[in-house]
Amino acid sequence: MSGSAYALGLAIASTNGCGSGALIAGKYFLPIFLKNQISTMPEFLRRRYGPKIQVVMAVLWLGIYTFVA
After folding, report:
1. By the number of CB atoms within 10 A of the CB, which of 29, 31, 46, 50 ranks highest?
2. Cβ atoms of residues 60 and 45 within 8 Å
3. Measuring CA to CA, which residue among 23, 28, 53, 27 is closest to residue 41?
4. What is the pTM (predicted TM-score) of this model?
């Protein structure tokens, strides 16, 4: 990783940082989600803020996936 970062720039090393962040988030948030039986982010938003925000998020991500991909 260090050699690749020297040769290609530090962008190659950012993938390692993203993995560490996911592990830390999983350690703290996964037990809460499992305790509340939440399996998706839209489900969490529906429980926390109501069904309207779940639809807004679904439409937003559908648009992002359609126009970016």
Report:
1. 46
2. no
3. 53
4. 0.55
Rounded distance between C-alpha atoms, residue 64 and residue 53, angstroms: 16
- Residues near 16 by Cβ (< 8 Å), separated by ≥ 6? 1
What pLDDT shows up at residue 5? 63
What are the mean pLDDT values of the chain's consecutive 10-residue runs (69 residues total)? 65 65 84 90 90 92 87
Q: Give the angle 25-35-61 at the CA atoms, nearest 5°.
A: 55
Taking Cα atoms as reference points, which of 57, 35, 8 lies closest to residue 65?
57
Collapsed DSSP state (helix, strand, coil) of residue 31: helix
* Token output for 42: 């839209």
